[in-house]
Write a structure and sequence with these properties.
Elements: H1 6-9, H2 17-24, H3 26-34, H4 44-49, H5 70-85, H6 96-106, H7 113-124, H8 137-140, H9 143-151, H10 158-161
Helix pairs in contact: 6-7
Length: about 170
């Protein structure tokens, strides 16, 4: 939630309407921060739209259904699962059954039903698991695999990021 003051992020009680509106600006702030970085152009719609809702009641642009970029739909569910499974200053983490109930409740209204079904299946088959400390990458991937992912240098150009053939230099 870059650009949001700690006084709002760490507030132990409910947010005021003004604080809620301020919190909602983090998607636009993130999008604007990525704007000058050509290499990350494909990521911008994910950052901007990960709080859109399947029913159109999300933010910042009120997109609905398949208007929401696919990556943002995935990130929206992933972000929600992470938030539900993490301890917050204002609440303890939800239990796995509570997370499952929330996902089922928001399936087709808050989140893409197909992506939600995939995440529910991952929980059911224990591909995703939770602990008292929430969901962590080391719980999803073995430590060596996580370290390898973190060392991966990534694409060198926008074309490589998007899977386009690299054109020979002239």
């Amino acid at each position: 939630k870059i650009g949001i003051p700690d006084s709002v992020l760490l507030k132990p009680g409910p947010l005021t309407d003004e604080e809620t509106e301020l919190m909602r600006t983090h998607t636009i702030i993130g999008d604007n921060l990525l704007d000058p970085i050509d290499l990350l152009a494909a990521v911008r719609p994910i950052v901007r739209h990960h709080h859109e809702r399947w029913d159109g009641l999300g933010y910042p642009d009120g997109l609905r259904g398949e208007e929401i970029p696919f990556g943002a739909r995935i990130m929206g569910v992933a972000d929600a699962v992470e938030a539900m499974s993490a301890r917050r200053v204002y609440r303890e983490p939800l239990t796995e059954p509570e997370i499952v109930r929330e996902l089922e409740r928001g399936r087709g209204s808050q989140w893409d039903p197909t992506i939600t079904d995939v995440v529910l299946r991952m929980i059911e088959t224990e591909a995703i698991s939770f602990s008292a400390d929430g969901l962590r990458i080391s719980q999803v991937l073995p430590r060596r695999a996580a370290a390898a992912v973190l060392r991966f240098p990534g694409p060198r150009s926008r074309d490589e990021l998007l899977g386009r053939p690299h054109e020979a230099a002239q």
